[in-house]
Amino acid sequence: MPTADMLAWPAGETRRFYSTMAFRSPYVVTLIAVRNEERTAAEVALSAVFRCESLGIMRSATEVRCQVEDAGVQATPMQSDAGKLQTVLEEWERSAEAATVYFRIREDGRVDRVRLEDLPDSGPRERYISGKLELFMARLLSPFDLELPAQGEAEWKHRSPAVASMPFSSAGSSLKLAQSAVQEQDGILVSGSGSGQLVGQYTFSMEATTKHQIDAECHCIRRASVEVVGMANVDTGHLSYRMAGYIEDIGEQPLEQPLTSWDLSVPRLIPQDD
Predict the structure, then answer these.
(1) Which domain covers residue 10, as residue numbers?
(2) In-domain check, residue 274
(3) The domain that contains 29 carries what CATH number?
(4) ∠15-19-21 over CA atoms, to 5°?
(5) Residue 269 lies in a domain
(6) Does residue 164 carry a pLDDT above 80?
(7) Is residue 193 left, alpha or beta, with left meaning phi > 0 and alpha meaning psi from -120 to 50?
(8) Is the residue at 92 inside a domain?
(9) pLDDT, tens digit (0-9, with 9 covering 90-100), for 200-247
């Protein structure tokens, strides 16, 4: 059964990951460009390929540095901005690909302190984009967040997982996951499910599911998926949101197609075979 120390990431070892995250928010998401352009979206998806290197243990946690090899941002705009998101999304894509991402993996398997460096912060609009991209990246890496037991129990609790915090919200989460582990031929499958509340401007009831596959050979997370859905009752009806994330260690395998950014309100032409 898994223990927290089995996810040790040796200093100097490099791993390459594909990650994707999508969320539907009850709040309007504002996406701005440096050149005085501001648009709004209801649904946003971000994908990226990370090449990450362990910098070793610092203050009881493994420090990890990642370069973003490729990124893409897709969004469904609010009706007033239909067809107007493309240039903003492409700017966010360029910013994501220019960033260096740092995060820590604690001794108990938790991920924290996701931060971005190497992005311009010369003005308020640049700082706004950097701050929101940092939140995006934290959600992209949230499937890595896996609290593991110290003694190798088959069942345990994971409190306030990173995926529980809704993007662009300062709400507090009381989500608790009941985790269980099953030994498989090539490693360990850790499954989690639970419920809780997200308390902010409104109180959302949440349900969450997670799956992590731990490889027996490298003692690392090969792939993981997370999903959280929430609903809040308000005077006019109800508000809902959904966030889903997936991450996979892809080694040096190339993607079938480069990641791209797209305004989902604009039809995309699909090449036809002759």
Answers:
(1) 4-263
(2) no
(3) 2.30.230.10
(4) 155
(5) no
(6) no
(7) beta
(8) yes
(9) 778 889 899 999 999 988 888 999 999 999 999 988 889 888 999 999
